[in-house]
Amino acid sequence: MLSSSSSSLPASFASNLFFGCLLTFNVIILTSHFPTGLSKPGTNTTQQRHRQLSYGYYARTCPQVEQLVASVTNQQYKNAPVSGPATIRLFFHDCFVEGCDGSVLIATKQGSKELAERDAVDNKDLRAEGFETVTKAKALVESKCPGVVSCADILAIAARDFVHLTGGPYYQVKKGRWDGKISAASRVPPNLPRANSTVNELLKLFNSKGLKLQDLVVLSGAHTIGFAHCKHFLGRLYDYKGSKGPDPSIDSRLLKALRMSCPHYGGNADIVAPFDVTTPFGFDHAYYGNLEAKLGLLSSDQALFMDPRTRPIVQEMGKEKDRFFQAFAVAMEKMGAIGVKRGRKHGEKRRDCTVHM
Ligand code: HEM
Ligand SMILES: [Ca+2]
Ligand SMILES: [Ca+2]
């Protein structure tokens, strides 16, 4: 059931929870409904123009950018499959703090007291494999198209690649994000959700980013792959909201298995559990079925089924994989447009994704 985090895939689960770990890789390719050209005409206030992204942004300056990134993501996925969940989560943490601008990639300056985003407590468990993927892809892209492609765009493309590589939809990625000039650890906590956030809190945060109820439920479906450390769900296992007992909305077999690996006190801090006990490595809609069966891992996951506002969306996504895949592609495009910067006034094009220009 559980395993310690390492760069290879965590070991398989205890048989009592091995609910048919059929690794299904039925991939549907979403045919793009969007033309690959420059952005929509008719929206030309200054602010909107700055924020516009397009599918063909690098058509002249680096037409092979997606192939270059793909060669790296393919290789990474073969060598270290956890690069998938790692990079998808990295993209989410980038977009929610200062917008999708590569701010999460900046390293704290040596000797500086001002910590960069990635050194914030909430970003400490972002896996190295996500950063590594971006660094490698950036190096390759720089060797072919120097000084052209932003780190933020590379992260957006790599995240999409991994959604597809793990079995999820393929969708086109809009590009044209510039990298940001600000990366401060202090900006992280107010802008990221927590494992014990209520639906109200999650909604408030997502709404503040221009995302809606449906986006919250659909994007949470990324928890169909990947793993979480015990500390994020320990409260549900032993002393839920001061009750001295477990969260009643957790399946008893899952509770037992999680308690075995995550003792109340003194457990190994490196132990992780899969978000999706059925297909932890496969990007599918099993996450939603799990929520209906009280198999959600985090309180914030299970809450989506408990709340009457989000439950119908959970049920809809659980019913049909294609519906989820389509909605996920749309929601990722929306998330990928949060706080986008264009131009030198607000942005930069870094050569090294970890340092400002
Ligand atoms: C809705 C609120 C959300 C909360 C409270 C939340 C919280 C978390 C937590 C606590 C972890 C475990 C980290 C660890 O222990 O290493 C995690 C992992 C993950 N999250 Fe979320 N998350 C949310 C939304 C999202 C979204 C919107 C995405 C992407 C679209 C996402 C993608 C992931 C992935 C892929 C992992 C697995 C990472 C890995 O295995 O390396 N999450 N999340
Ligand atoms: Ca950012
Ligand atoms: Ca899955």
From TrEMBL:
Ca(2+) 2 binds at T224, D276, T279, D284. It comes from the Eukaryota. GO terms for molecular function: heme binding; lactoperoxidase activity; metal ion binding. One of its GO terms (biological process) is hydrogen peroxide catabolic process. The record marks R89 as: Transition state stabilizer. Its main location: secreted. One of its GO terms (cellular component) is extracellular region. It is found in: Secreted. Signal peptide: none annotated. Residues 52-357 form the Plant heme peroxidase family profile domain. Keywords: Calcium, Disulfide bond, Heme, Hydrogen peroxide, Iron, Membrane, Metal-binding, Oxidoreductase, Peroxidase, Secreted, Transmembrane, Transmembrane helix. Heme b binds at H223. Ca(2+) 1 binds at D94, V97, G99, D101, S103, E117. Binds 2 calcium ions per subunit. The chain crosses the membrane at residues 12-30. Pfam families: peroxidase. This is Peroxidase. It comes from Punica granatum.
